[in-house]
Design brief:
12 helices, 36% helix, 5-stranded parallel sheet, globular, two-stranded antiparallel sheet, 7 strands, Rossmann fold, 263 residues, alpha/beta, 2 domains
Length: 263
Amino acid sequence: MTTSRKPRIAVVKLASCDGCQLAFLGLGEKLLELASQVEIVHFAEAGPLGALTDLDITFIEGSVSTREDQDTVHSVRRQSRFLVTIGACATSGGIQALRNLSAGNLLSSVYPSPEYVDFLAHSTPVSSEVGVDLELWGCPVNGTQILTAIASLLFGAAPAAERDKVCLECKRRQIPCVMVAKGIPCLGPVTLTGCGALCPSFDRGCYGCYGPSENPETPSLARRFAGLGLLPDDIARRFLFVNSQAPAFLAEGRRWTKEDRHE
């Protein structure tokens, strides 16, 4: 930074579960250290509710699901030097984007008076509305991602992009492959690491929380799932979950749905 004032940072919530904001708060003492070096002007989860103006970095959690969300992202984009999306909801629409795949009206099954709910037709990532400078994948993100992003952006360096897959993380941690050893379907071969291979370490298959890896071989993995005995709809659900709107996962999931697959 070239000015003498502290960098101004905001954390903004859209449609989300707040998990990524809690990961921010989970930094503990490191968050207190950060607060001594920057000015956190707006972070409702932590208390500050300052004006969203003249911002150096704005973190956005949540998908664009309402007209208010739309207005918010356009406003903070104009006021922010850097705009960073955190988590699956902000980067790919998240869990709430599952309604994009439904042919029926889900609102009427949830709300007694859906006409009063100002939802958009679809839940979409922030990048569908405005330009984004950095996307941090995860459900939720982790504190290291956040601190690294802040340090890199404020000092003019491009944050290092994670390129390893969950499978490589399992090998580093000497975690037996759950798919090979136990026949458990796992998205690890096509998913970026960032969680420390949390699910495989507890004999669970990866859910794809950190989004598609670079050049993911989703067709090969889907065929492996079929070899494990999963039915087409079950295979589709594996890809159409946390990051259902990520292009690679969306395309593979649709290939295995009853509506779109070729018999």
